[in-house]
Amino acid sequence: MQDHLNDTHPAAKPEGGSRTGLARGDQKLGRETPAWRPISLPPAGGSIAKSDACLASGFYSASEADRLFSTLREELFWEEREIRIFGRRMLQPRLVSYYGDPGASYCYSGELFHPRPWTATLDTVRRQVEILVGSSFNAVLCNLYRTGADSMGWHSDDEAELGERPVIASLSLGATRRFLFRSRDPEKRDGSRGVDLQSGSLLVMAGSMQQFYQHQIPKVKASSGVEPRINLTFRKILYPGSPQDFPDQRAGR
Ligand SMILES: O=C(O)CCC(=O)C(=O)O
User: Fold this and answer.
1) What gap in Å lies between CA 13 and CA 24, rounded to an integer?
2) Atom of ligand 1 nearest to the CA of 172
3) How many CA atoms lie within 13 A of 226 on its CB side?
4) 69, pLDDT greater than 50
5) How much distance in Å is there from the Cα of 177 to the middle of ligand 1?
6) Ligand 1 pocket member 179 (CB < 6 A)
7) Rounded distance, CA 207 to CA 56, Å?
8) Chain-centroid distance, C-alpha 176
9) What percent of the chain has pLDDT over 70?
């Protein structure tokens, strides 16, 4: 896996510029690149650049993604964690794992996550994502959706730790799942729009995305027989979380 991950892999360029710095990666990775596709968003009342929500299909090839999925499923410390919503404690509907630099603690949905040290595999993936995206990341939240019954509720990645306009790079491995966006403001909300996240694809959210939008991974009917999926969301913790950041959360993941 390591040798394989050390190969250069497809890099991509955002349409219409580099607000997220995405174009920088092209200069460092010498191979033919797939295109970044801007994601079509529902109205939300805010100004969003095309490159603030975009997807690179084929960031990893299907076979690379398959191998990475198996390695991470085996290697990472997957656990069931509680969250707190409306004062109630409940298990998150998926397995999670959090890795990062020492001190990059992150608090969401009323739970404080201390990072485990980077594994060699995660660190290699981080470096490849950083080169392509042109942003640095010091933590990764890993999610394992065991079946279609596992999900993530509507939320924004707007925790104080991430600063005001976070760049979040989200890698999908395994089963394709639908990722939905909607306006945060119910009065400006006009339904949701979605994108299918295929194995090996890299989604980037940047700019004011977290200010104006929520996102979720909805459940899928058991009859559709959805296979497991791993998602890695690379983040930069600017101000580490602490236990006093435990407000009662109304939106829970
Ligand atoms: O699994 C996904 O694609 C979504 C992950 C996500 O929204 C998050 O970790 O905040």
Assistant:
1) 8
2) 3
3) 22
4) yes
5) 11
6) yes
7) 17
8) 14
9) 82
* Encoded tokens for 100: 């990062």
Q: Is 156 in the pocket of ligand 1 (CB under 6 A)?
A: no
| CB-CB contact of 105 with 242 (8 Å) | yes
The C-alpha angle 174, 178, 184, rounded to 5 degrees, equals 135
Residue 17 and residue 7 in contact, taking contact as beta carbons nearer than 8 Å:
no
Distance CA 243, CA 253 (A): 18
- What's 2-245's CATH class? mainly beta
Name the residue of 83, 231, 235 to mutate for ligand 1: max ligand atoms within 8 A of Cβ: 231
Q: How far apart are CA 92 and CA 72, in angstroms?
A: 20
Q: Is 215 exposed, middle or buried (0-12, 13-18, 19+ CB in 10 A)?
A: buried
For residue 141, what are its two tokens? 């939240």
- Which residues have C-beta within 8 Å of that of residue 27, sequence separation ≥ 6? none
Average the pLDDT over 228-245 and give the result. Answer: 87
The torsion of the CA quartet 64, 74, 126, 166, rounded to 10 degrees, works out to 110
DSSP symbol at 79: B
- Counting beta carbons within 10 angstroms of the beta carbon of residue 118, is it exposed (0 to 12), middle (13 to 18) or buried (19 or more)? middle
- What is the pLDDT at residue 246? 56
Average pLDDT in the chain:
85
Q: Is the pTM of this model over 0.90?
A: no
Helix count (H) and strand count (E) of the chain?
A: 5, 15
Per-residue model confidence as pLDDT tens digits over 80-132:
998 877 778 889 999 999 999 999 999 988 889 999 999 999 999 999 999 99
Residue in this structure with the two tokens 């109304």, named with its chain if needed: 250
